[in-house]
From TrEMBL:
Occurrences of domain SMP-LTD (ranges): 133-316
Keywords: Calcium, Cell membrane, Endoplasmic reticulum, Lipid transport, Lipid-binding, Membrane, Metal-binding, Repeat, Transmembrane, Transmembrane helix, Transport
Membrane association type: Peripheral membrane protein; Multi-pass membrane protein
Main localisation: membrane
Gene encoding the protein: ESYT1
Region of interest called Disordered, as start-end residue ranges on this chain: 1-44, 612-646
Keyword Protease belongs to the record: no
Transmembrane annotation, as ranges: 66-89, 248-268
Protein name: Extended synaptotagmin-1 isoform X1
Species: Balaenoptera acutorostrata
Length: 1107
């Protein structure tokens, strides 16, 4: 077809280039044709002449080197050599140009192919394309494309107005932190970086929620630049990719517009995240950030998006239970037993691969953000781990259990395989015990998976604890419950120095597990709205410790210790209230919601062991016939045969009273001003050490602390005593002394002032007493009473008895894997004190022949716990022996075979109890009837089978304790009675009051009262003299046993009156208190040296008095 030079080619005449998309308008080729069409038809005559002259000049220029060589007189060889160099250089240059053209062509082809692919991805899929569970949602993508520019504006404001101030306040090195640029990418393009590939709706869930899974993909050229001007540091993000499944929950559904109360969003599994950082090296050089790394930052960002973290957007005001929507209770707990693996591939190679070794496998177990790592088994293709982990499951279906196995290497660990399992299958099965094949590798991994349901009451707590005692769990013991703490807010926290607002954060601890909240800056009324989760081994004995601190952790703003046993009696195991903070301001308080749930394995395949004391439990007195015996076997012993030293231990009570004339170690102003010292005492005896409290700024300190240690009659023992001055860096030495125990063990008592050695001055007042255990329980009540009287607030509770245990042997322990005998050892424990025996190798009838001793403070309530375990095999049996059974036994001793729970085994042990009676405490314990004459005060009956009475060299009070539980007591009055002990402790210069109990209190309403006792020293009515006991729930006969002290002289005490009121809370929300009765004691009319417990009749407010 002929065209004129000025004609434009039509779209019909111009074909598409092969690389152009069919829907793309032809641009580049059209422009090329247009430009070629506008050029002139051919060059003119002047152009042709110029070309001929240029060609002739180039040829003439080539002859110039030949002419110069001839003129100089060089040979033809030089000319040929130069010509060869030129040709070689020209050949190399042509090769480089050809390579560059090929590379440029490949790059152009790649760009065209990428553009074509991206263009096709933005088109709607054909109608016949479908997926079984995922629906297309192109309408959502169109909405996102429309909203995307406005979302970028919101993010820019959020980062500048909210995130940047928080970053500046979080670290003093980041006070000049600013965002200099925020762009989410594709701001002016028709292509959107965020796309929703598919949507899946989960039917059959709760009726008050809608559950959606969005498969999202984000590929954008996001640009976020930050600057820290103080360190001239610039960094940022340039490009990011994110792909994963985002779960969206619409709940609760309500009957008013907008129908949906809130929207929750989170990733079920960790999404694939890739961020292109700029200037990261500069940012990590800033002080305070140098410990971070690129990988740690990526992990933190990815984990922030994954369960249990959620993004909650309330859609209606005043939405109820926002905290539970933001952090709901788990659906359940999965106990994962990582048992073993087999058939793993060998990754270790030696001698450059010529010799094939094995592998050093370990496993990573992951559920959401919860990750656990097993120990490494060296040189083994069939490892045995035997470890147990517990994970919280929040979403079913959706979450997965992922196990990855690696080979440990010095440089980079080798991947051996992985397996994945949806937690919904564990929920359906209850218990799964299977070998799972490893994907992307060879071999199998053996898992036992147990689904633990959450129970909202404590009815089955004993059953769960009994079952857990027989569960083999490593590295942590199995949990019996979980605790979820919803930390809401605080009020009226104290200010920092200079009346500055604090930056409060909270530390929550249960035993050795501590979690921290975020810091809220510049406020004494912070709002956290965070949730924390804890596993509990035994909620009856554990406590929640709460510390409110400034973000520097140096200043404590308040504290709270909450026994978790309190939740066991609360409705649905839940407390939702304000808590008063101690060591804080008068009105400082913390609002929390605490929710406890028991972990119960509900499976027909699992049988809980019988609880001791139930009909299913073994009868210890009925021993069945022994099977498997032979004529030649020696007879089984019926009692233990301990050596002669068993049960001969004594208890040494060390009373650190005071010191005088200590040297001053504190210096101020570079030593120009002489201060004092902050002394404390360290004691060492028999491998144990004790330390007193620090007395601030005193050269004549008074500690008055009591320590107790179990001692034997081995000669040559010494008590080492050292006194130090407490300092911030290194404590200064104030003197030492040594005390030989020979005199104390022989005479039973020592009260001396000891001169401190290696220092110019100073002496220490110690009182040492030997307590010999007595095998009778007749004096136990008096001992407990005496201990409560002489107990100091600075010392631990005094021991009332000594328990000696001799563990001889065991029999019929279960075999390992059905055929192999175990390697058993035993653990004896009373409270926090435990003793572990030796391990006897491969036998089901071990002989230990070991003994242990324990200090017992409350024999009526404590128990001896024995656990028999196999080395590497777990629990073989357990025994719980309440010490109350020893109190009713002959000579306070039990010596026979005991059947073990959770197994067929038996143990032969001897447990004997000895009561510790102090004859030098300032209180003489004697049994009396309720009515006694004054002449009886001079009587001194013989104690302990004729042992001589040794009087104390120091002047002491001598008082008698009455048996208030005698049948001769008078009946209670119409309002009931309160049992009190009031006495003056001259050693401490303190008035001591002990509230023991109440009985026969008046019930005014339908429910029993919640009584507590209030004490007030008249005529003062201020807070300084007011004391208050704990509150007992719904009882007419509460037991308190609480001690209260007032520091004053004896003359001042005799001028006072003690006002005792028994009150009850009217209701949970009301501050009103109902008076159940009161009594007023004139201390001048009471013999304060008696220290006797007595019942007093309660009177009305208008008729006060005592009986």
């Amino acid at each position: 077809m002929d065209r004129s030079p000025g004609d434009r080619p039509s779209a019909v005449d111009q074909p598409y280039a092969p690389s152009d998309p069919p829907d793309q308008p032809p641009t580049a080729h059209a422009k090329l044709d247009q430009s070629s069409g506008n050029q002139p038809a051919g060059p003119g005559a002047a152009g042709e002449a110029l070309a001929v002259l240029t060609s002739f000049g180039r040829r003439l220029l080539v002859l110039v080197p030949v002419y110069l060589a001839g003129a100089i007189g060089l040979s033809v060889g030089f000319v040929l050599f130069g010509l060869a160099l030129y040709l070689g250089w020209r050949r190399v240059r042509e090769e480089k140009e050809r390579s560059l053209r090929v590379a440029r062509q490949l790059l152009d082809d790649e760009e065209r192919l990428t553009a074509k692919t991206l263009y096709m991805s933005h088109r709607e899929l054909p109608a016949w394309v479908s997926f079984p569970d995922v629906e297309k949602a192109e309408w959502l993508n169109k909405i996102v494309a429309q909203v995307w520019p406005f979302l970028g504006q919101y993010m820019e404001k959020l980062l500048a107005e909210t995130v940047a101030p928080a970053v500046r306040g979080s670290n003093p090195h980041l006070q000049t932190f600013t965002f200099t640029r925020v762009e989410l990418g594709e701001k002016h393009s028709s292509l959107q970086p965020l796309r929703i590939i598919g949507v899946r709706v989960h039917p059959g869930q709760r009726k008050d929620q809608i559950l959606l899974d969005l498969n999202i993909s984000y590929v954008g050229d996001v640009q976020i630049d930050v600057e820290v001007k103080k360190y001239f540091c610039k960094a940022g993000v340039k490009g990011m990719q994110l792909q994963g499944v985002l779960r969206v929950i619409l709940e609760p559904l309500i009957g008013n517009l907008p129908i949906v109360g809130a929207v929750s969003m989170f990733f079920i599994r960790r999404p694939a995240l890739d961020i292109n950082w700029t200037g990261m090296t500069n940012l990590l050089d800033i002080p305070g950030l140098s410990s971070l790394s690129d990988t740690m930052i990526m992990d933190s960002i990815a984990a922030f998006l994954v369960l249990p973290n959620r993004l909650l957007v309330p859609l209606v005001p005043d939405l109820q239970d926002v905290a539970q929507l933001r952090s709901p209770l788990p659906r359940g707990i999965i106990r994962i037993h990582l048992l073993a693996a087999r058939g793993l591939s060998s990754k270790d190679k030696y001698v450059k691969g010529l010799i094939e070794g094995k592998s050093d496998p370990y496993a990573l177990v992951r559920v959401g953000t919860q990750t656990f790592c097993s120990r490494v088994i060296d040189e083994e293709l069939n490892p045995q781990w035997g470890e147990t982990y517990e994970v919280m499951v929040h979403e079913v279906p959706g979450q997965e259990i992922e196990v990855e196995v690696f080979d440990k290497d010095p440089d980079k660990d080798d991947f051996l395989g992985r397996m994945k399992l949806d937690v919904g299958k564990v929920l359906q099965a209850g218990v799964m015990d299977e070998w799972f094949p490893l994907q992307s590798g060879q071999g199998q991994v053996h898992l036992r998976l147990e689904w633990l349901s959450l129970l909202p009451d404590a009815e089955k707590l004993e059953q769960v604890l009994q079952w857990n005692r027989g569960v083999s769990s490593r590295p942590e013991p199995p949990s019996a419950a979980i605790l979820v703490v919803y930390l809401d807010r605080a009020q009226d926290l104290p200010l920092k120095k200079g009346n500055k607002e604090p930056n409060p954060m909270v530390q929550l601890s249960i035993q050795d597990v501590t979690q921290e909240s975020k810091a809220v800056y510049n406020t004494n009324g912070p709002v956290w709205e965070e949730a924390f989760r804890f596993f509990l081994q035994d909620p009856r004995s554990q406590e929640l410790d709460v510390q409110v601190k400034d973000d520097s952790r140096a200043l404590t703003l308040g504290a709270l210790t909450l026994p978790l046993a309190r939740l066991l009696t609360a409705p649905e195991l839940t407390l939702d209230q304000w808590f008063q903070l101690s060591s804080s301001g008068p009105n400082s308080r913390l609002y929390m919601k605490l929710v406890m749930r028991l972990l119960y394995l509900d499976s027909s395949e699992v049988r809980f062991p019988a609880v001791p004391g139930t009909p299913e439990a073994w009868d210890l007195d009925d021993e069945g016939p022994q099977t498997g015996s032979s004529v030649d076997a020696p007879p089984r012993p019926s009692h233990t045969t301990p050596d002669g030293n068993f049960g001969t231990e004594n208890v040494l009570r060390i009373h650190v009273l005071e010191a005088q004339d200590l040297i001053a170690k504190d210096r101020f102003l570079g030593g120009l001003v002489k201060g004092k010292s902050d002394p404390y005492v360290k004691l060492k005896l028999g491998g144990r050490s004790f330390r007193s409290r620090v007395v601030q700024e005193d050269l004549n300190p008074r500690w008055n602390e009591v320590f107790e240690v179990i001692v034997t009659s081995i000669p040559g023992q010494e008590l080492e005593v050292e006194v130090f001055d407490k300092d911030l860096d290194k404590d200064d030495f104030l003197g030492r002394c040594k005390v030989s125990l020979t005199t104390v063990l022989d005479n039973g008592f020592l009260d001396e002032w000891l001169t401190l050695e290696d220092v110019p001055s100073g002496r220490l007042h110690l009182r040492l007493e030997r307590l010999t255990p007595r095998p009778t329980a007749a004096e136990l009540e008096e001992v407990l009473q005496v201990n409560s009287l002489i107990q100091t607030q600075k010392s631990t509770e005094l021991a009332a008895a000594l328990l000696s245990v001799y563990l001889e042997r065991a029999e019929d322990l279960p075999l390992r894997k059905g055929t192999k005998p175990p390697s058993p050892y035993a653990t004896l424990a009373v409270g926090d004190t435990s003793h572990k025996t030796k391990t006897v190798s491969q036998t089901s009838a071990p002989v230990w022949d070991e003994s242990a001793s324990f200090l017992i403070r409350k024999p009526h309530f404590e128990s001896l716990e024995l656990q028999v375990r196999g080395e590497g095999t777990g629990a073989l049996g357990s025994l719980s022996l309440p010490l109350s059974e020893l109190l009713v036994a002959d000579q306070l001793c039990l010596d026979h075979w005991f059947m073990l729970s959770n197994g067929p085994g038996q143990v032969l042990l001897r447990a004997q109890l000895g009561i510790l009676v102090s004859q030098h405490s300032g209180v003489e314990a004697h049994s009396h009837s309720y009515s006694h004459s004054s002449s009886s005060l001079s009587e001194e009956p013989e104690l302990w089978g004729g042992l001589p009475h040794i009087t104390s060299p120091a002047p002491e009070l001598r008082q008698r304790l009455t048996h208030s539980d005698s049948p001769l007591e008078a009946p209670a009055g119409p309002l009931g009675q309160v049992k009190l002990t009031v006495w003056y402790y001259s050693e401490e210069r303190k008035l001591v009051g002990i509230v023991h109990s109440c009985r026969a209190l008046r019930q005014n309403g339908r429910d029993p009262p919640d009584p507590y006792v209030s004490l007030l020293l008249l005529p003062d009515k201020n807070r300084g003299t007011k004391r208050k006991s704990s509150q007992k729930k719904r009882t007419l006969n509460p037991e308190f046993d609480e001690r209260f002290e007032w520091e004053m002289s004896l003359d001042e005490a005799l001028r006072r009156k003690l006002d005792v009121s028994v009150k009850s809370s009217s209701s949970f929300m009301s501050r009103e208190r109902e008076l159940l009765g009161k009594v007023q004691l004139d201390l001048a009319e009471i013999d304060l040296s008696q220290g006797a417990a007595q019942w007093y009749d309660l009177m009305d407010d208008k008729d006060k008095g005592s009986s």
